[in-house]
């Protein structure tokens, strides 16, 4: 439940960050593109707000991502015990040495048939 909440918050922060970046003018104009000098926020002030908002959203994305990762590694997130998880846990791990080594109880392979080497 907590992981789902963090994922939803992460998606909201990502969408908000994308909007903040798209609103910004590359030359520092930002939202104040009307040219009216009597608006409440000036060009510089709007740029500062958008820049600070971008940094805050970026920090939130990092914090949410780290929290989701930490919860996943601790096993507190989605410990449902699904059939897929059970199957993965029951599957035997392959030997690091390999299974191609013969054992003493193995019967030797039949000798290969000799090939006819005469020319025809």
Note the quaternary state here: single chain
Rounded average pLDDT = 74
* End-to-end CA span: 80 Å
> How many strands, what sense, and barrel or not for the largest sheet?
none
| Beta-strand fraction estimate | under 5%
Radius of gyration: 32 Å
Which ranges are low-confidence, i.e. pLDDT below 50, for 5 or more consecutive residues?
none
Give an overview in words.
The protein is mainly alpha-helical and 120 residues long. The chain is built from three helices and no strands. The model has no long low-confidence stretch (mean pLDDT 74). One of its GO terms (biological process) is intracellular protein transmembrane transport. Belongs to the SecG family. It is found in: Cell membrane. Involved in protein export. Participates in an early event of protein translocation. Its main location: membrane.
List the helices and strands and how they pair.
Blueprint (H helix, E strand, L loop, with lengths): L1 H22 L19 H32 L8 H8 L30
Helix pairs in contact: 1-2
Quick tags:
mainly alpha; transmembrane; 120 residues; protein-transporting ATPase activity; Protein-export membrane protein SecG; cell membrane
How is this structure best summarized?
With 120 residues, the chain is mostly helical.
């Amino acid at each position: 439940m907590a992981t789902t909440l963090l994922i939803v918050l992460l998606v909201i922060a990502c969408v908000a960050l994308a909007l903040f970046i798209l609103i910004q003018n590359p030359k520092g104009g930002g939202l104040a593109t009307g040219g009216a000098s009597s608006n409440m926020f000036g060009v510089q002030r709007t740029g500062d707000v958008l820049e600070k908002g971008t940094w805050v959203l970026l920090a939130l994305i990092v914090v949410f991502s780290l929290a989701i990762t930490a919860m996943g590694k601790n096993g507190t997130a989605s410990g449902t015990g699904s059939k897929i998880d059970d199957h993965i846990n029951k599957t035997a791990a392959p030997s690091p040495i390999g299974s191609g080594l013969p054992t003493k109880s193995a019967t030797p392979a039949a000798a290969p048939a000799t090939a006819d080497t005469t020319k025809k």
